[in-house]
Amino acid sequence: MCCNYVSTAPGHVAGPSLGANVLDMRRTLPAAVLAAGLLLTACGTETGQDGPGGEPSSTAASPTETGTEPSTEDPTGPEEPTTAEPTGPEEPTDPATAPGDLPGEVVDVPPYSDDIAAVIGVEAGSGLNYRRGPGTDFEVAGTLEPLGYRPAIGETRRREDGSHWTQVMVHDGWYYWVSLKHIAQLGGTTDITADLTELPSAATVEEAGLLVARQRTADHPPSVETVVVDGPVEGDAGEVVIDVVGLGDDALAGERLHVVTERTGRGHTVRSVELTPLCARGVTEDGLCE
Question: Which domain of life does the protein's organism represent (predicted)?
C-alpha cells in the first residue's frame, strides 16, 4: 500500500506519529501519481483503439477484389453437330410399277426376264453407258465393262429413231437402260483352231488376232465390225479377245474370238482360237443360238 495503517487499540504499541505519516505521504504522493499515469498509459495501448469510440485496427491482409470463387459446375462442351442421314441417288423405277410415260414402244424381243445380258462390241478400256431411261436423252448413271454381263429385266423399248433399249439390273434392285445393239447372250465356247485355213503370224499379238477375224468374216458384208474387247497381252505367250459384230444374222449378233499366240521366228504366231457365239434371240440347252 502507499501509506502505513495506524492502530489505537489497547495493548498494542503505538506506531509512528500522524505528522510523520503526513510527511511520508507528501514524499510518496508525486511518485504514486506518476506511477498511476504510466499504468493508465500502458493499459490504453493494449486496447488497440485509434481513439474514443474507434474501431479496433487489424494487421491481417484483406482479400483482393479481383479474386473469384471457382465454379463447381461441370464444364459445358460444344454442342454436338447433327449429322444428316446420307441420301443416295434416286432409285430407278421398278418395271413392275413403271409409269406409262416412258418414251418408245414396248416390243416383245429378247433378252427376257432372268436372261443373262452380256456386253458386246465395246472397245477395251471403254465401257457401255447405262442410263436412267430408254434413250440417249436420259442421264448416264454409269458404265458396264466390255466383258461385263447383267441379269435382264425383260422390258425392251423401240424409239422413233429405230434404236432399241433394254433394261438390266446393274445392282440388286437397281435397274437401268442399255442399248440393245451392245447386248447379246453368250453361247457355248468351242475350239476352232483346226477350222482355220492357216495360223497367221504378225508383228504384234493384236495384229495376229485381227488376221484371224478377217478369215472368219471374208464372206460377210462390209458392215461387219471387229472390236478388240480385251487385251492384247504381249509376251512369249500372248492373247487378245476380239468381237466380230454386225454379221447381218437375226439369230447371231456376232462372234467372240479368244486368240492365243506364241513368239516364233516370224513374230507372234497364232497357236489356238476359241469361239463363243453372241446370240441375239436366246441360247439352246446345247449352247447354240436359237
Answer: Bacteria
Position of cell 460377210?
220
96-183 belongs to which CATH class? mainly beta
In whole angstroms, what is the distance from residue 283 CA to residue 287 CA? 6
Q: Per-domain residue ranges for the chain?
A: 96-183, 190-279
* Cis peptide, bond prior to residue 111, ω within 30 of zero: yes
Unique residue bearing C-alpha cell 498509459: 41
Would you state the pLDDT for residue 220? 80
User: What is the secondary structure of 134-175 as a DSSP string?
Assistant: SSTTSPEEEEE-TT-EEEEEEEEEE-TTS-EEEEEEEETTEE
Q: 251-280: b or e for each residue (b if 16 or more CB lie within 10 Å)?
A: ebbbbbbbbbbbeeeeebbbbbbebbbbbb
Reported CATH class of domain 190-279: alpha beta
Torsion angle of the four alpha carbons 35, 40, 42, 46, in this order, in degrees rounded to the nearest 10: 160
Whether 208 contacts 239, CB under 8 Å: no
pTM passes above 0.90: no
Digit-coded pLDDT (tens) for 7-60: 333 333 334 443 344 334 444 444 444 444 443 344 443 333 343 344 433 333
Question: Are 213 and 226 spatial neighbours (Cβ–Cβ below 8 Å)?
Answer: yes
